[in-house]
Design goal:
Layout: H1 9-13, E1 27-31, H2 60-73, E2 77-81, H3 91-99, E3 106-111, H4 120-126, E4 130-134, H5 140-147, H6 152-164, E5 171-175, H7 185-194, E6 198-202, H8 211-217, H9 221-232, E7 236-237, E8 246-250, E9 257-261, E10 274-277, E11 282-284, E12 292-294, H10 296-300, H11 305-317, H12 336-339
Parallel strand pairs: 1-2, 1-10, 2-3, 3-4, 4-5, 5-6, 6-9
Antiparallel strand pairs: 7-8, 8-9, 10-11, 11-12
Helix pairs in contact: 2-11
């Protein structure tokens, strides 16, 4: 594919290890587990989902060691995700250990918030700065259908607990799907009128196991924006940091903002500053390309820190550019819950 290779200046000048295009990677997303207490229709297939045996996942010590090495290379922003990160044992302790590394400026977490109200304060106190909560509708019945069994009231308690604990600004992620929640987006957007929250609408990606949901359900950001503007009138654009995948807008007079994340209709490879670590210890270089480098077996074979650092640098150098999902090209070999969205 003939892609214009132009790196956003801020991503070029940022700290962190570089890929061969000159993009600096200062942001690491860590999948803490491939397990989850929901089965969202756009993330997991209805049947046949396989979870990895626990001994194939990184132990706490392996995980913290690897993260420390990423930080030595210049990574300063970390997001915990999954699967559902709140079901990972010892989460509070893992956060405390990661936050203790010199050079970690921010730890955030993406969660479905189902059990967040139990320990929001403890997570905040351990060093968790911010959360993103996935919530696709405010209709409890549709919510139960989209998550295949999830309870909206508990999720709402989790959001309130995180807000009260000071994990701000709260970001809410909504994957918009045809025939599911496409007509609920204005209710989600209305939350920004009275709350200083960011409500972000995501285009579905055709990850492993949900190809048909993508084929039948994709709603582009432009369609969602048109839908919202029919309801609220023209949205006002807000300036956005280039490495933020969301393009930001607001309803005039609202306290919070509305974001559109458009990996399909407007890929943001030029400003990509992130790499991923899967729960089984693979460096995943791009969400929708299959390139991975294994670190679990390297660590278990006794690799020194210097050897691991060398392989991390070499792996990041190989980070790919661009995808052709919008042209029907599906390269991915794992589901979103396995990679860490
Ligand atoms: N369980 C947590 C949650 O749902 O927030 C964290 C993991 S989940 C995989 C991370 C994010 O990926 C969520 O915001 C979810 O909505 C999004 N996601 C999952 N599958 C997706 C897909 N096929 N396309 C786009 N976003 C997806
Ligand atoms: Fe679980 Fe998050 Fe995937 Fe939903 S999107 S099934 S909550 S990992």
């Amino acid at each position: 594919m003939a892609v214009p290779i132009q790196i956003h200046p801020l991503v070029k000048s940022s700290q962190g290890p570089r890929d061969s295009y000159g993009r600096a990677m200062n942001y690491l997303r860590i999948s803490l587990t491939d397990r989850c207490n929901f089965r969202c229709v756009y993330c997991m297939p209805a049947v046949g989902m396989q979870f990895q045996p626990r001994d194939e996942l990184l132990t706490d010590d392996e995980l913290v060691r690897l993260v420390g090495l990423f930080v030595q290379l210049g990574v300063n922003k970390i997001r915990l995700t999954g699967g559902e990160p709140t079901v990972r044992p010892h989460l509070v302790d893992i956060i405390r250990r990661i936050k203790s590394f010199d050079g970690v400026d921010e730890i955030s977490m993406t969660t479905n918030a189902l059990i967040l109200s139990r320990n929001a304060w403890a997570l905040k106190e351990a060093g968790l700065d911010r959360i993103n909560v996935s919530i696709d509708t405010l209709d409890p019945d549709k919510f139960r259908m989209m998550t295949r069994g999830g309870r909206l009231d508990l999720v709402w308690e989790g959001i309130k607990a995180a807000d009260a604990a000071g994990m701000s600004p709260i970001k809410l992620n909504t994957v918009v799907l045809k025939d599911h929640n496409e007509h609920d987006v204005h209710k989600m957007a209305e939350l920004t009128l009275d709350h200083d929250w960011h409500v972000r609408f995501l285009e579905i990606m055709p990850m492993e196991g949900v190809g048909i949901v993508y084929d039948e359900g994709l709603v582009t950001s432009a369609e969602t924006q048109a839908n919202l503007e029919q309801h609220f009138g023209a949205l006002e654009p807000i300036e956005t940091h280039p490495s933020d995948p969301a393009r930001l807008w607001k309803i005039p007079g609202a306290k919070g903002s509305i974001g559109f994340i458009s990996p399909i209709s407007a890929p943001f490879c030029d400003a990509c500053n992130r790499v991923r670590l899967t729960a089984d210890g693979k460096l995943r270089l791009c969400l929708i390309r299959p390139d991975e480098v294994d670190f679990r077996d390297m660590m278990r074979a006794g690799a020194t820190d210097e050897e691991i650092l060398r392989h991390l640098r070499a792996g990041i150098w190989r980070k790919p550019w661009g995808h052709r999902v919008h042209e029907g090209d599906r390269e991915t070999v794992r589901g979103m819950s396995q990679i860490g969205g």
